[in-house]
Design a protein that fits this description.
By secondary structure, this protein is an alpha/beta fold. The chain contains 11 helices and 9 strands. It has helices spanning 2-28, 33-39, 46-51, 63-87, 117-129, 156-167, 196-214, 231-250, 293-311, 336-339, 370-377; strands at residues 109-115, 136-142, 171-175, 184-185, 190-191, 220-223, 254-256, 272-274, 280-282.
Length: 405
Amino acid sequence: MTKKIDRTRKLRWLMLALTAASLCLGVAGPVHVAEAQEQRYQRRSILDFFLGRRYLDDSPQPPDVQQPRRQQHKRPPAQKAIVNTRTAPPARAPMQDEEPAVQKLADARKILIVGDFLASGLGDGLTAAFETSPGVVVETRGNVSSGLVRDDYYDWPEQLPKMIDEMKPAMVVVMIGANDRQQMVTDTAKEKFHTDGWFAEYRRRVLAFGKEVTDRKIPLLWVGLPAFESDSMTADAVQMNQLYRNQVESIGGEFVDIWDAFVDENGNFIVTGSDVNGQQVRLRTSDGINLTQAGRRKIAFYVEKPARRILGTQASPDLVRLDSSNLPGLGLPANPVEHTVPISLSDPNLDGGAELLGARPPPVTLAKSPRDLLVEQGEMTPAPSGRVDDYRLPATKAPAEVSVK
C-alpha cells in the first residue's frame, strides 16, 4: 500500500515538473508560424496521456499561434504594393487622359455680361456654354447687390461706358432688376415702388442704360427675370419683364425671355425641373431666389442661341457649311443645276393644270357615264370582248360558199 502511495506521489511530482517546464518554454518567447505548424505533427507525450489531451490537430489554435498567422497574411500585400509603386507611372500620368482646355484665340470676340447676382450666375453658365469655342470669350462684370434704382450704391450708367471702352465687346448681355423692388430717390422726390412715378422714372433709366450699348452699334441682349417662390416677387417680375421688352425692343435690342424655364405647365414656380440635357435636377436654391449651377446653365442655354446667331461662325467653328464647296466626290456633274431643274412639290403645274379641282364646273355631256347608268338605272355596260365577264356568245360565221364548176 505504501509503494502505491509513493508511486502516485512520484507521478504527481513528474506531472507538475513537466507542466512547469512547458510554461517556462511558453513564456520564453512567442511561437513562430513555422514552429506552430511543426508542433501540429508531433506525437502525444506522456503528459497528454495522463491529462487526456487530444492531438494538437484536433484542438483549437492558441492566441499566440493565430497572431503570427495574421501577420504572415499581411506581409505579401505590403511587399506587392512596394513593387507596384516602383513600377507604377508618375502621379501626373492619369491627367494625360483629361481633355485639355480649348485655347482662346488672340482675336476672340468678347461677350460682356453686366447686372446683379443673376447676371453673375448667367456668366458662369455662359462661360461653360462657350468653353469649347476658341473664338469667344465671356467677360462677367456683375455686382451682386446692384441695380438701376440705388445708383448711390453702384452707378451702372457711369460704369458701363468705362467697361465698354476698356473691353470693346462684340455683344453686351444685361440681366438686372431683381434688387430694384424698392424706393427710388429722384432729383425731385422719393418714389415708392408700384407707383406711377416710380415706373415712369424706371422706364427712363432702362432706356438710357440700353442706349449706352445700342448707340455704339453693339448688339444688346436683355435677359428677363425668372419666376420666384414669393408670389409678390413673381407678379412684380412679370410686370418688369414687360417693361424691359418694350423699352429694349424700341431701341433695337433683343429681349430674351426665360420665364418658361422655371415654371411648370400651369405657370407655377418650380424648384426642380429639366436641365439642358433633359434630366430632372434642382434649379433653384432653398431661398427660392438664387439659382443652382444647373439653373445658371439653363439660363445660359436661352442666351446662347441668339448669341451664336449674332456672332456667326466665329462662335461655332465646328459647324460645316453644306454648300457645293463641301460636297464629297460622288461623281456628280460640276453644276448639277444645269442638268436637273429643281421641282417644287407644291407646284400646281405638276398635275397638268394650274387650277384646283372644282374651280370650274365640269363639262356638260349628253351621254351618261357608266356610273350614272349603273346607279340611276341599274344598267351595266357590256364587258369588253374577250374579258372573263363577257358572257356573250361568239358570233357565228356564215359558211363559205363553195363554187361548183
